[in-house]
Design goal:
By secondary structure, the chain is an alpha+beta fold. It is built from three helices and seven strands. A hairpin with a 2-residue loop joins strand 3 and strand 4.
Length: 169
């Protein structure tokens, strides 16, 4: 556990309404993120802790770099991911979504890990209009058109094609 993400909040707990800003960069392994898509670059955490009568809110941004492959053409994709966070920490967990305050400290690691995991793209694209690869020869259609002819339609779909053409009329 990294000390940069283990925050002592004893002063915040004594004075509701006070705030504390946290702006740190930690190594990716400090987050113990078990996903190969995160690149081994620093994870940025810029949050404001605000003491309230119900606990401490943590609001701000978390950023990390991820890498993967385009789901259409398999080209490498490498981008910076920024996630807005708004979480609640409580001594006595009254809210089921709250994180615990233990020994007057809050550990931001689980919150950072969860928010990054949820925000990682499931099917990344190298660009929004990526045409992908040819299903017959495997040529990258972003580079140019291949010489393949259009595949013939399966005759079993003819009945449905006929229904589609009557809907167009």
């Amino acid at each position: 556990m990294t000390s940069a993400l283990l925050i002592n909040v004893v002063e915040l707990l004594r004075s509701p309404g006070t705030t504390k800003d946290v702006d740190v960069s930690v190594e990716c392994e400090a987050i113990a993120f078990d996903d190969a898509r995160l690149v081994d670059e620093p994870v940025g955490v810029q949050v404001r802790l605000e003491s309230m009568s119900t606990g401490i809110t943590v609001a701000g941004r978390v950023s990390a770099t991820w890498a993967g492959e385009c789901r259409r053409c398999l080209a490498p994709v490498h981008e910076r991911l920024t996630v807005d966070v708004d979480e609640l920490y409580q001594r006595a967990l009254e809210d089921p979504d709250a994180h615990p305050i233990v020994n007057d400290q809050i550990d931001l690691v689980p919150m950072v890990r969860e928010n990054l995991l949820v925000a990682l793209p499931v099917g990344p694209l190298c660009r929004s209009d990526c045409p992908g690869i040819c299903p017959q020869c495997g040529a990258d259609l972003a580079v140019g058109v291949c010489g393949c002819t259009a595949p013939t339609r399966d005759p079993r779909w003819a009945v449905l094609d006929a229904l589609r053409s009557t809907d167009d009329d």
